[in-house]
Amino acid sequence: NEVAVEHKESSQSVDKVKKHEHERGEWNNKYEFILSCVGLSVGLGNVWRFPYLAYDNGGAAFVIAYIVLQFLVGKPMYFMELVMGQYSGKGPTMVWNMNPCAKGVGISMALISLVVTIYYNVIMAYTLFYFFASMQPTLPWTVCKAEWYEFGCVEKTIAPMPYCSLNVTENLIRYNNTPCRCYENSTFDMRSYLEPLGFNCTTTTWKGDKPVAVAQLYFDKEVTKKSHKLKIDEMGPPLWRLSLCLLLSSIIVIFCVFKGIKTSGKVVYFAATFPYVILIILLIRGALLDGAIDGVIYFIVPKWEKLLDLKVWVAAAGQMFFSLSVSFGGIIMYGSYNRFKNNVYSDALLISMMDIFTSLLAGFVIFTTFGGMAKELGVGIEDVARSGYGLVFVAYPEALSRLPLPQLWSVLFFLMLYMLGLDSEFALYETFTTCLFDEFTLARRHKGFLSIGIGIMCYIMALPCVTAAGDCVVTIMDHFGADYSVLVVASCECVAVMWVYGARTFINDIEYMLGRPLRPKIYWWFCWVICAPLLISLLFLYRMIKYKEPEVVEGVPYPLYAQAIGWVLTMIVLSPIPAYFLLKLVRAKGSVIEVGIYVSVMMTTI
């Protein structure tokens, strides 16, 4: 009879688990899970951020620092979050049944994901704008408009040219027969005076102190109509073309996540693999350009002295952290849809390696093309390279415009960019919705309609980002709502799991789930308990000590009221962490001393 009762209870338990999995959903197969995780971790930052950081911070020296930090922090954190999701079968908020006082960490993850979802879709709208613009007979970022010449517009990137001097000796010392620029609107004919003496006094078509590439002016004046007026009554209405691109992107994202992973799991077969096809095609095309090797050398030749520079390690840590999307909640969310016995150990290693591979592949794609462009124009790599938006919306489009069939290469490039952003976008979107549906299980019955409603809400909240001051709004949301905030979340997450729940308990859970010992155990214990929390905390402290106000233009910080709004956003996304901890502390039975003793006992499981 006892055996029969135990069997009945076991069957009921299994039925409950199956019912729970059916209600939440689960991956149809392992490929959907891996491709989705790759899509989350491999995004736009791998293309526009990693290559520039690498060449700006010592080439291969930066890559070495990046790989070292991947093994000490990135891989362990990624593996930890996948285990948390898979073992519990719950999203970022409900997973904290392991340590209820840390549930605020999960809520902060959901809020940060929502903030990033809003402004990330704006960047995707930029890629759609360029995608459609690439279909024109003449690429619009290759021709200067008449009104742009006053800003120094040039149709080919050229190095800045200094003004000639009337002092012949000074010209001889400074320029030594290299071209220099004639003064504009001068009543004195400088050219007729200097040329007989052997100096090349050149009259330029561009005005101002330095030339500005037409691709830069196209982005600033045509696409974003950039303005630095941040007051609400001065920002202007949403730009209609960007608003339509944002609407189209929102519709595509909603379609992909309408039924959760049941639909997004199918989309990633194309969205996660297509970018690699285009990257390889662009790499082959770039490698055939004259001067490609110069770009590769500039990208990877190590400057070993840079390894002793703390700024290089900080840059590598920042890139590693945000590239893998650790502590945004998406990894926990995707892991929660796995079967309990899935071999998450090998999955975590494969996905983190794909992140490194993609970053390096994108770097070679970018710099082989830049090498060819620099050779053709007769300028240095540093004159054509850009960081951030400038790399993918200014420098690389200009480089593609110099290839045969530029419309074809531009269409492929911007389609690839959109695909890279798409699977990251709906992962962030699903992180928020999964938290919502886990907290309010009855809402799962109306998942599709709620997904549409949340999509509409995100679209409306993103409209200020497509005004003339939208670029500044995006910067505020990124800087205050995600950049520093996610470092705080990561530190709290490590402590809550490894120091309070206990590293030994966590490792035992992994071994029970995998059905075999975790090896090498000492490596994982060292990284989880000591390395990750220590390095993340030091990174946060370093960045706060070296904190620099975001700038509208170089040397001009954002207005105080704009920064105040940013800090309020930081408080909103981080406030659940202390609030939930204090709530649990107040409701806890016993005195504060007894609670302290209990926590001390729990920490012995480290």
UniProtKB/TrEMBL annotation:
Q: Which GO terms describe its cellular component?
A: plasma membrane
Cellular compartments annotated = Membrane
Protein name, as recorded:
Transporter
Top-level taxon: Eukaryota
InterPro entries with a match to the protein in the record:
Na/ntran_symport, SNS_sf
Positions of region (Disordered): 1-21
**Protein residues bound to Na(+):** G39, V42, N46, S323, L420, D423, S424
Its main subcellular localisation, reduced to a broad class, is membrane
* One example of a Gene Ontology biological process annotation: amino acid import across plasma membrane
Cited SUPFAM superfamilies: SNF-like
Q: What PANTHER family does the annotation carry? A: SODIUM/CHLORIDE DEPENDENT TRANSPORTER (PTHR11616), TRANSPORTER (PTHR11616:SF236)
- Membrane topology of this protein: Multi-pass membrane protein
Residue spans crossing the bilayer: 60-84, 105-132, 239-258, 267-300, 312-337, 349-370, 408-428, 449-470, 482-501, 522-545, 565-583
Cysteine disulfide partners in this protein: C144-C153
Keyword Flavoprotein belongs to the record: no
Q: Which PROSITE patterns match?
A: NA_NEUROTRAN_SYMP_1 (PS00610), NA_NEUROTRAN_SYMP_3 (PS50267)
In its keyword annotation, does this UniProt entry include Transmembrane?
yes
The record's similarity note reads: Belongs to the sodium:neurotransmitter symporter (SNF) (TC 2.A.22) family.
Give any GO molecular function from the UniProt entry: amino acid:sodium symporter activity
Keywords, in A-Z order: Disulfide bond, Membrane, Metal-binding, Sodium, Symport, Transmembrane, Transmembrane helix, Transport
Per the record, the coiled-coil ranges are: none
